[in-house]
Amino acid sequence: MRRITRIATVGIASAALALSATACGGKKSSDTASSTEPSAAIAYDVGGRGDQSFNDAAYAGLQKAETELKVKGSEAEPTDGEGEADKVQRLTELARKGNNPVIGVGFAYAPAIKKVAPKFPDTTFGIIDDTSVTGPNVANMVFNEEQGSYLAGVAAAKVSKTGTVGFIGGVEVPLIKKFEAGFTQGVKDTNPNAKVLSQYLTQPPNFDGFAKPDLGKAAAQGQLDAGADVVYAAAGLAGSGAIEAASAKGKWAIGVDSDQYNQAGLTKYKDQILTSVTKDVSDSVFDLIKSVKDGKPTTGEIRYGLDKDGVGLADSNPKYKEMTDVIAAVEKAKADIIAKKITVKTAP
Q1: What is the pTM of this model?
Q2: pLDDT tens digit string along 139-182?
Q3: Among 234, 257, 255, 259, which Cα is nearest to 244's?
Q4: How many whole angstroms separate alpha carbon 82 and alpha carbon 100?
Q5: Residue 328 neighbours by CB under 8 Å, 6+ apart
């Protein structure tokens, strides 16, 4: 049976943890990783497992490693309103228990990995969505989110009947601005007269914009009321609220990170999920775990773009597959980006 470690700061009630456990049916715990069996660990970002998006994609990579590589997996959840010291403690505990690699899911782990990685030189530390922290045992798994978002912009502009579409960012940070920049450029290159409504849910250091669906729902409702008939949310768990709002109005939603059409927690809304901007977080996690198990740990920057199918646009919705003109426009844009005929902006 799969062994999972969950670590939380003692005495702090975690709303994100409670939500994640509810969404996933809870998780089993064990105190230590086996000293004789390979083990790998992931420490989740805001929202935790069960976000139907970013964290769940990382979890899928860990699951794959457990199945195919016979590696035991450990998971560690975030706590509500935690600080850097909590992340440092979490990563330290995971490394002390013999997990290798230890992967921080999200750029928020950069300061903690900078402190912890030098103390465990024989452990590989992975971080997703960050290149600011480097070291001989640090792997930076990063993506060209702007490229996938450009394709979403093309699709949104093609299906929009009002000429108004919406972008919702969870927290206004440079990473999410890449999503906005690519989406807006894709919309405008396809329909110069289109209008893009952009809104961020929270400002750092408040990261609730990645964790609270009600914030995403309210923002999407506002954009829909203002005439948007397609809404793209890059907001983690909060994005599920935007999908719900679009579905209730019979308008299109565009998912993010995972293929949200296939997420069990979003089944009742999936008919209105036109497509999703996918990031191959799952394979990035799996590949790093495999490199460590093979005795050749990957370090440094590992970039995933359209050219390597590291980002893309999902086509799981049968309604989308029927839109041959939309698919043709998306495929042409993809080919032009790969051929460097189109350079996608990384900032609005």
Answers
A1: 0.84
A2: 999 999 999 999 999 999 999 999 999 999 999 999 999 999 99
A3: 255
A4: 24
A5: none
- pLDDT band at 36; cut points 50, 70, 90: low
Q: How many CB atoms lie within 10 A of CB 67?
A: 12
Write out the two tokens for 211.
């964790």
**CB of 311 closer than 8 Å to CB of 278:** yes
Per-residue CA distances from 211 to 16, 110, 198 (Å) = 7, 19, 19
Residues in Cβ contact with 90 at an 8 Å cutoff, skipping those fewer than 6 apart:
7, 43, 76, 112
Contact between 145 and 94 (Cβ < 8 Å) = no
Contact by Cβ (8 Å): 230, 223: no
Helix, strand or coil for residue 169? strand
Distance of alpha carbon 133 from alpha carbon 299, whole angstroms: 12
Residue partners of 50: CB distance under 8 A and separation at least 6:
19, 20, 21, 22, 23, 24, 56, 237, 265
Strands 125-128 vs 164-171: parallel, antiparallel or unpaired = unpaired
Cα–Cα dist 297/24, whole Å: 31
pLDDT of residue 24: 36
Backbone angles phi, psi at 17, to 5 degrees: -65, -45
CB atoms within 10 A of CB 242: 32
pLDDT digits 0-9 by tens, 263-298: 999 999 999 999 999 999 999 999 999 999 999 999
Joined tokens for residue 10? 């003692």
Coil, strand, or helix at residue 164?
strand
CA atoms within 13 A on the CB side of 250: 1
CB 266 within 8 A of CB 243: yes
